[in-house]
Amino acid sequence: MTSSMMKYNFDEIIDRKNTNALSVDGFREYIFNTDESMKFPYEDDEFVRMWVADMEFATPPFIIDAIKERLDRRILGYTKVFEPEYYEAFVSWTEKRYGWRFEKEHLVTSNGIIPALYELVEYICKKDEKVLFVTPSYAYFKYAADHHQIEYVCSDLINNDGYYTIDFDDLEEKAKDEKTTLCIFCNPHNPSGRVWSEEELKRVGEISIRNNMWIISDEIHCDLLRIGKSHTPLAKLFPDYDKIITCMAPSKTFNLAGLMFSNVIIPNSGLREIWKQKHYDFQNPLSIAGAKAAYLYGEEWLEELRVYLDNNFQFTGEYLAKHLPKAKYRVSEATYLAWVNIGEYLPDEENLPLYFANHAGVLLEGGDMFVQNSDGYIRLNLACPRSILEEGLRRICEALN
Ligand SMILES: Cc1ncc(COP(=O)(O)O)c(C/N=C2\CONC2=O)c1O
Fold this sequence. Notes:
CATH topology of the largest domain: Aspartate Aminotransferase, domain 2
Largest sheet: 7 strands, mixed
Number of helices: 15
Number of strands: 15
Protein name: cysteine-S-conjugate beta-lyase
Number of domains: 2
InterPro entries: Aminotransferase_I/II_large, C-S_lyase_PatB-like, Class-II_PLP-Dep_Aminotrans, PyrdxlP-dep_Trfase, PyrdxlP-dep_Trfase_major, PyrdxlP-dep_Trfase_small
Strand content: 15-25%
Structural class: alpha/beta
Order of helices and strands: HHEHHEHEEHEEEHEHEHEHEHHHEHEEEH
Helix content: 25-40%
Shape: globular
Cofactor: pyridoxal 5'-phosphate
Strand order of the largest sheet: 2-11-10-9-8-3-5
Bound molecules: ligand LCS
CATH architecture of the largest domain: 3-Layer(aba) Sandwich
Family: Belongs to the class-II pyridoxal-phosphate-dependent aminotransferase family. MalY/PatB cystathionine beta-lyase subfamily.
Pfam families: Aminotran_1_2
């Protein structure tokens, strides 16, 4: 299906200026830990933004309509998810797409998966215990441990010429430490884009069970699969092990991160009670309306988005093969994030995001923004109109050649 045949227009460039968008106004603080005093050879609106995991596509109209409909009720008072319809919409989504149902009582909500990670580390780990995760890793897995002064331990993924696999011997060795009580597992994996197979997931689960380890399976990217790929919720494979917490959200899938609404499925009654005692569980009524509409009406839009993203990944591969032949690139199996090794072009560059901001006018994430095992890699957000993607790739290749 080409863009012109699509019902939704993913080629549309949308102005995000003056919307308090992190992607537009927050890059100095988030990427460079600085402020407006930091200057670049480019004006802010000249940058091609390929960094934070936000999409440059309009939030689907059926979600906007659901939010407007809630606004028409004209009172926005204290709100929680009291209605059963939200659970029904979400569990119908996971059943239809992943063949997985969970009990209504196990579902709680959070104002984001990052806040949920911070809370769950506090509720699960004692101060002298450790959090385990595979690397390269999304930095907030580390930050969640750091925030509570909990030690973290990493297990480097094996990089087979850009295809990452789990080093199960190393993972088990680290899980054997009785102080390692929690694993935060990214499924699918940011930044490598891996979709873990059932066999890989079974080994991760078996290691956790053998070593009595909790697992938070962060599945925020699970809807954003390349066509032909399938996602398996980790908890689906271990219905009798209640120490697997599953985190999912409509935020990545439907570009709703600003609604700050995520799903956390906690089968363990003891941990769930601690969550309910400590967690501030009021929600934004507009977020509930938007999230429910996403799961009720989102299939068609998501399938078109997947086609558009697959085409962007293919275009990126062809462009890099032609203009940056020494770069190592594979189409990510999931996410809208491309993980590209450009180490042969910049073997000694310490700060890749700064290099590309100054020399290409492209904002991207990379290098040590991901917890170790990421040298020479940049991560490119491909969830943007093709014209923006092409300009970003052009600038990157020009800066390296
Ligand atoms: C694995 C993973 N978990 C959680 C989050 C954030 O969840 P939230 O708190 O928004 O519900 C992200 C967003 N990843 C981003 C955001 O910008 N760059 C990234 O790599 C993520 O990649």
